[in-house]
Amino acid sequence: MRASRASVEDVRRAFASAGAEPARGELPQGLSAVLVPVFESSDGEAVLLFTKRAETLRRHAGELSFPGGRMDATDPDPLAAALREAEEEVGLAPADVDVLGHLTDLTTYYGVLVAAYVGVARGEPPRVAASVEEVAEVLSVPVSHLLDPARYESRAHVDMPERRVHYWHLEGSVLWGITGELTARFLARVWGWAPPGEPRVVREVSEFRPTSR
């Protein structure tokens, strides 16, 4: 897919008919929420903002993620939690985000429900973290990089070959895990993306850990 097609307007069109929030009933304890921040580059390309988690964090240390975290008692809903966390982690003010809608709910390996939202942000992407305790690095990734088959691979366990784990090899980092799955769902929603090629079949859980090329 050509980079020229990966525009912010594509994202807006994909979420123009987004429905209401899903009916979740009573929110589960420990619910987390993330924001998928979309920026527009100087040449009109959609750019996604990721954070590299601090190595000192208890879970997913050093991994790439979208801004987000656990919902607090003071948050009126998961979206508010996602916006609050984005401001705390990378300094992205809620007033500068045009929220387009709910992307998906995803239950993690640890049983945590993650609610993901998409928003178009104004201005330049943040370059440094607002919370160095949580964020080691802020990365702006053009969508054209994510649509490039040469940067992508997938793996699946021999007992569940239909369940892929997605990997994107970026400059100095590998995008995978929960955030990789959210990214895959975002690309599919907006650009009709589908994983290229067949997954590499593995037998051990340890083989899902990413390696750089």
Summarize the structure.
With 213 residues, the protein is of the alpha+beta class. The chain has a single domain (3-20, 28-208), classed as Nucleoside Triphosphate Pyrophosphohydrolase. It is built from 4 helices and 11 strands.
Question: What is the percent of helical residues?
Answer: 10-25%
Strand content: 25-35%
* Order of helical and strand elements: HEEEEHEEEHEEEHE
CATH superfamily: Nucleoside Triphosphate Pyrophosphohydrolase
Average pLDDT rating? 90
Radius of gyration: 17 Å
Tally of helical segments: 4
Inertia-based shape: globular
Given helix and strand content, the structural type is alpha+beta
The CATH architecture can be named as: Alpha-Beta Complex
CATH fold group: Nucleoside Triphosphate Pyrophosphohydrolase
Key traits:
alpha+beta, 11 strands, 213 residues, seven-stranded mixed beta sheet, Nucleoside Triphosphate Pyrophosphohydrolase
Structure notes:
This protein is α+β, with helices and mostly antiparallel strands. The protein has a single domain (3-20, 28-208), classed as Nucleoside Triphosphate Pyrophosphohydrolase (Alpha-Beta Complex). Helix content is 19%, strand content 34%. The strands form two sheets. Strands 1, 2, 3, 4, 5, 6 and 7 form a seven-stranded mixed β-sheet that branches. A four-stranded mixed β-sheet has the order 10-9-8-11. Strand 8 and strand 9 (160-170) form a beta hairpin. The radius of gyration is 17 Å and the shape is globular. The mean pLDDT is 90.
